[in-house]
Structures are given as structure tokens and as C-alpha cells.
Amino acid sequence: MTPVITNAVGVALDIARRDESDPLARLKQRFHLPAGMVYLAGNSLGPTPVAAFADMEAAMRREWAEGLVRSWNDAGWFTLAESLGDRVGALAGAAAGQTMVCDSVSVNVYKALQAGRSLRPKRTTIVAEGGSFPTDLYVAEGVVAGAPGMELLLEGVDGARIEDLVDERTAVVLVNHVDYRTGELRDMAAMTRFIHDKGALVVWDLCHSIGVVPVELDRAGADLAVGCTYKYLNCGPGAPAFIYAAARHQATLRQPLSGWWGHATPFAFERGYRPDNGARRLLCGTQPILSMRTLDAGLAAIEDVDMHTLRAKSIAITDLFMTLVEDACRTHGATIVTPRDPARRGSQVSIAFEHGYPVVQALMARGVVGDFRAPDMMRFGFSPAYLSYADVHRAASAFNAVLEGGDWRDARFTARRAVT
Ligand SMILES: *Cc1c(COP(=O)(O)O)cnc(C)c1O
């Protein structure tokens, strides 16, 4: 890795050189980025792919307004869940026929946990991370509440590590590939192997890795996975999520939301549920087609690029940011929580600071958008697809200036808004 030069002129030259030789620089024009903004919240909601404007216009005017009900066939609406699913799957190392784009992450966690239980019916525990994204745990609690005798065991609560909690009672382990708070990356292959050695199944949550970290679901031998399309895949607010089930499990797993889209012959209108033999059994009902129509643009913006090229830049820009802010952090009592070891981090930098909320607000006033997660975590998501090294430098300079100048103390930055 290129050493970072620390005097001001040297840094500026180094940044310019890196942008000039960046093989991904051309991707930035595929996104609409508001003027004057450095956007570091793509781990929460990715920016608009430029192609989505025309796609939405076509979906509204041609497919809906003119095509009407014929568009289920003519515009491929009925098969979008699988055609888009195969493309998302390709970004996650999944061969075709195993991934569906549908529903929300929360709903897909429910289906995946229940599908896992259906494959391990005699087992009585679900294991998850106590620090997981809350909705994953809320859903797991709901699964357990509806299944007398089932128990939910949490890393950090019932045992120090996931490895301490998985045993012959474990049906399913729900694990995040990248931790949404700390940005820490798990070794998918090793964890999957460990879980399988105990006879349990794994559900990987890919919300914070898909699109920025190479994911190898098939190679790792993953059983089930879920993930988000509106974060690093840039597919739009509330765009449908995805769910993966390894081919070997599809004919036997059961998921409880047995709606007509998962039926073997939905248009036979048979009495009695008979699931499709393949991944379509993961579906429930009619999908939000207009929201699905923005996926093509989001996926097309990165799918012609090798994921390892994206990963190399992601590592470089997160490293650059940490290097540029670490002195200011040390001086002002803020702590970089994300691992410096690139093998152990995703594509975000998290900094714990007692006054994190007003710092994030003060940064926003300077055109640098990150976010905040209670109680004290500032999160900065770094997408290699649309951030330049100059953007990263500008963000770090603003961060340092806010800490040094103390402008976060201003009353207008301390008032808490609903979405943080
Ligand atoms: C973003 C995210 C979700 C979001 O769930 P929705 O049902 O789409 O609201 C769930 N889990 C994790 C780990 C996330 O990062």
C-alpha cells in the first residue's frame, strides 16, 4: 500500500496522483451526486444512479400507463424477482437460480430463519449477535416467541463469541458479514465451516457488504443469506431486498409466508399450497414493481467492474480517511472503532465520540454527509464507486476542522432530529 504523506503539499499531490490513476474514476458520472457534497452515507442510502431517471419514466409511461396489465408478461414484471435476483446473486458469488429480489430485509430474515428451522426441526436454539442490527434481532425474537421450546442465544450476552454458543442444539446462526456499527468484517468461509461442523445452518446478513466487499456465498457453502439493495447497491429508498437459498436446500426448505407467488403454479389458482421446487418458493406475493425497476440502474452501475477492484479502492479510501483523522481523534478523545487491518473491515469507518451527534450535524453544514448511531457512534460509509480520493481528503479536512474548531458546540447542531 502507498504510504500516506503527511505534509499538506505532499498530501495534495499524492491525492491528485491517486485520482488520476484510479481505474474506477469513470464510475462517478454514473451517479447523481448533489453539488458540493461529499456523500459518506451510502451505507444507509446510496445515491441515485443517473440511468434510473429514464428507467422510472419508462416504467411509468410505457410499462404502466400504456402496457397496463400486459406488462406482467411483456415488460418481464412477473420474472423480475428472479432476473434481478440472479444479478444480485452474481455480485454475491451465487450461481443463478438461488437468489430472489423481494420484500424487505426484515421479512426475508423471518423467512430465512424459519426456512433454516424447517431443515433442522429437532434443534432448539437460534444464535445471533447481540450487537446485530436491531431489526434482525426483533425478527428472531418473533420467531422464538411463536415456537415454544425455541431459545434465542446472543453473542455478547449469553456467551462472549458466536463460537461459544453453537452446539448440537443449534438450528440456525444469523450472522452479519459486516457489523453495521463497527464496520468489522467476518470471515465468511471460516464461520460457515465452523457452524456446519456443529451440524447447524447459517443465514448471512449481507446488508453492509454487498456491493463493496467480494462475497462468495457458493464457495463458502452458505445455506441462506439476506441483504439490502438500497445501501451500497444504490437501488433506491425502500427498494426490495434479496434472499438466497443454496440450491441443495430449495426442494426441502419451508418458509412460512406461503403466498401465491411461491406456489408451483400460481396461475392455475389451485386449492391448497404447493410450493415451487426452486427459489421461487422464497416469494410470497406481488412485488412493488416500480421500486424494483430502479434496481437495473443500480446494479448496472457496478456490475461491469471486478469486485476485487472495488475492494482495493474501498480499502485504500477507508485507510486514507483513518490516517488523515487519527491525530485529531487522539487529541480530542474520539476513538476509531473500525479495525485498521483491512482484512477485518468492510467499507465504513466508525468513530466513537461522546459528542458524535453534533459533530455529524456540523459536518453536514460543511457538505460532508455521514450518520450517527446511538449512543455515540459516527459512521462514514465509503463507496469506491463514486468517491474520489479528493472527496475523502475534503471529508477528513472538514472532520478535523470540526473537532479542532469545536463548532459542533453550536446549539443548532445539538438538537436531535427523528432520523439520525
Ligand atoms: C439496513 C439493514 C436492515 C434493514 O432492514 P429493512 O427491513 O430493509 O428495513 C436490516 N438488517 C441490517 C443488518 C441492515 O443493515
UniProtKB/TrEMBL annotation:
Functional note: Catalyzes the cleavage of L-kynurenine (L-Kyn) and L-3-hydroxykynurenine (L-3OHKyn) into anthranilic acid (AA) and 3-hydroxyanthranilic acid (3-OHAA), respectively.
Cofactors (names): pyridoxal 5'-phosphate
Subunit note: Homodimer.
Keywords: Hydrolase, Pyridine nucleotide biosynthesis, Pyridoxal phosphate
InterPro entries: Kynureninase, PyrdxlP-dep_Trfase, PyrdxlP-dep_Trfase_major, PyrdxlP-dep_Trfase_small
EC number: 3.7.1.3
Positions of modified residues (N6-(pyridoxal phosphate)lysine): K231
GO molecular function terms listed in the Swiss-Prot or TrEMBL record: kynureninase activity
Organism superkingdom: Bacteria
Family from the record: Belongs to the kynureninase family.
UniProt signal peptide: none
Biological pathway: Amino-acid degradation; L-kynurenine degradation; L-alanine and anthranilate from L-kynurenine: step 1/1; Cofactor biosynthesis; NAD(+) biosynthesis; quinolinate from L-kynurenine: step 2/3
Protein name: Kynureninase
Catalytic activity: L-kynurenine + H2O = anthranilate + L-alanine + H(+); 3-hydroxy-L-kynurenine + H2O = 3-hydroxyanthranilate + L-alanine + H(+)
NCBIfam families from the UniProt entry: kynureninase
Keyword Hydrolase carried by entry: yes
Residues given in the record as pyridoxal 5'-phosphate binding sites: S106, F133, P134, T135, D136, D205, H208, Y230, W260, T286
HAMAP family, per the entry: Kynureninase
